[in-house]
Design a protein that fits this description.
Arc Repressor Mutant, subunit A, 4-stranded parallel β-sheet, 3-stranded antiparallel β-sheet, binds S-adenosylmethionine, transferase
Length: 260
Amino acid sequence: MLNNNNICANQLIEAEAQSWDHILSYLRPSCIKCAIQLGIPDILHKNPNPIMSLSNLIIALPNLNPSKITFIPILMRVLVDFGLFNYHHQGDGYSLTRVGRLLVENDLSGKRSFFLFAQHPVVLNTAAYMGDWLRDDLSTAFETAYGKSHWDYCAEEPKFNGIFNDAMASDSRLISNLLISDCCVGVFEGLTSLVDIGGGTGAVAMAIAGAFQRLKCIVLDLPHVIGDRKGSGNLEFVAGSMFDKIPHANAILLKVHTPV
Ligand SMILES: C[S@@+](CC[C@H](N)C(=O)[O-])C[C@H]1O[C@@H](n2cnc3c(N)ncnc32)[C@H](O)[C@@H]1O
């Protein structure tokens, strides 16, 4: 026994190891973001051979400071451990895993945009205010951190607004493909119009409008999201707040995230 709390040495070591895991856990997404910034998933994806040697990878990395080349094998080893890349002993090379493939630019079911949004300093800083938020009377931690709603912040910061909208659109690709697949065709039967409320930059509505040409699809979102988008054919963009007015349509589409 080590102390009067009856914790034995093994339990203490296990608790200590878990604590270190929590303390250093911020490094996992930081390393993945670093790989995206360096373009490593894209370089591996574009390589003519599925396996790329470490030396060729280093040559292909743009703007790498030569004095820091020795850190690349360490970064790659960590990312293999995180499941992004496979390491191939033969040839000392790397290839993309299925998870790594999702971080390639413009991958259709990719998670890259969402990853960059979730790792954005504005978002990370919001999470740091969780403790304050639980003690104040504001409805979101974002307001605790920035003194305004996420939507108002987006309206004032076009760059962050773009990153957020891209992340939302990328997140909607899978659901868009499902909605227009055979398994959901009946959902739109008999409808002549629908409005996607808070439809962002229109990823879902565009897919539906393309698949069901006789269905008029309206995207309603805040003015800073709609921007100067006009739409064409059976797709229309409307700038405004759902709390003021919702365009008339047979059906409304509202994507809701339900905790599982
Ligand atoms: C979580 S995002 C979802 C975007 C899109 N539906 C998707 O699935 O990709 C929520 C959207 O609601 C929009 N929004 C927030 N408040 C709104 C309001 N009062 N009226 C209309 N849209 C609003 C935001 O601008 C944002 O685009």
